[in-house]
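Dear support,

I submitted the protein below through the web form. The confirmation email said the job was done, but the results page showed an empty box. After a refresh the structure appeared. I'm attaching both so you can tell me whether what I see now is the final result or a partial one.
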Amino acid sequence: MTIALGIEGSANKVGIGILQTVPEMKILSNVRHTYIAPLGEGFQPRPTAEHHREHILDLVEKALKEANLKFSDIDCICFTKGPGIAAPLVSCAIVARTLSQMFNIPLVPVNHCVAHIEMGRVVTKADNPVVLYVSGGNTQVIAYSKNRYRIFGETIDTAVGNCLDRFAREVDISNDPAPGYNIEQLAKKGKKFIQLPYVVKGMDVSFGGLLSHIIQKSKKWLASGEYTKEDICFSLQETVFAMLVEITERAMAHCGCKEVLVVGGVGCNLRLQEMLKIMAEERGGSVCAMNEAYCIDNGAMIACAGVRAFEAGKDEAVVQAKDAYVTQRFRTDDVYVNWRCD
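What the results page shows now:
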């Protein structure tokens, strides 16, 4: 049995998770705290890093207490190497390095995107699904092949979560608990559908033109009363999600796959899950989805991916504290997935 502690802090959430691998992978604790930016602003690197530094040690203590464990019980410490925002990543990596050296615990760097996928596979029991990874900083359609998570399609400009967040700031939608969540609630009350730019290029999507268009038009629509804020949120959601469902279905057809796993913060949107479910069932398949506890960035997902690499090959997975650096750019397909075989 291996017990792993995971540290996540690539964006505005800092999380600590602890899990064990025997008799099956079991999450013992999974705690986090979110930095909420002021109305009309996105989260900036410096205050986000300060938030993480303020809360991370309390979260470590809380996670250990919930799991009823001590540091002497931990077999490896896993931390987010990237991708993400530099300052928050560094603030958490410093804690991971310090704990590793203080308690002589092996240190495992983890790809944030791969961690989302592995967490999804554990929670939903999905075997070999096509993955739709949608978050504030990433939008990718992924499938596993020959020890890599291969990217079939992705955004060519802004990520879908960032698109939603930037729109929310323009029309004064609150960041508490999250702009995407608040857009989802407003969209449920929308009655009029607005035709918006729909840009799919092969297996890739583009949200930049759509975002510019809706920002330019929304204030005029609201001022004239032609459309309500609810109508705009409804139309934006329907359009961007339809684009995502289209490229996901194309990947499923190419791979001959019947399962689609949706991960990342935007993945807990119930309307997106519903649209994917309709598409998958029409193909004789199913959608594997999670709630916000596991879709949104958390420490358990980092522990999950890290412990799998650790158990598959300690020599390759473990790094010395001096080599435990972070990077803002770390592609999903850069990771050699040594814990899976074709």
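Response: this is the final, complete result; the empty box was a page-load delay. The longest helix spans residues 229-255.
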